[in-house]
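Subject: sequence -> structure tokens, single chain

Hey, anyone have a minute? Need the predicted structure for the following. Not urgent.
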Amino acid sequence: MQVQWLLKKFEELTPYQLYAILQLRNEVFVVEQNCVFQDADDRDQSSYHLMGFHNNKLVAYTRLVPPGRMYEQVSIGRVVTSPSVRRSGAGKELIKQSIDAVYNLFGVQPIKIGAQLYLKHFYGSFGFEQVSDVYLEDGIEHIYMIKP
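Reply:
Had a minute. Here:
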């Protein structure tokens, strides 16, 4: 599957790109995961947005949050792939692209994530290590992980 990757600061996003991001995040986080939460958390404006498009449709996305804005470390968050591309390798490529983007933007440094517990081994395959006990976020088990 051919994915075109695009990285933009918030103010560079077109209205259509922003709409596609919010639509994908809502489709997965709110509807699919049946999780009511405040997605618009005032961190989008200071973040970078990595978008993966297939046939002009947003199918993969992460938010790259600068250090000090969410955690002391830079963070990769709002990691999401469209159900239409699951099991295609798009998720693995999304994480690879996100790590590369973080290193290009902020230099090679630790990256902290709040990961859903069931994805511990997935993130572990990229060098992330569990650094917290399990905690509940919006009714879903999570752990903090850091890629040193």
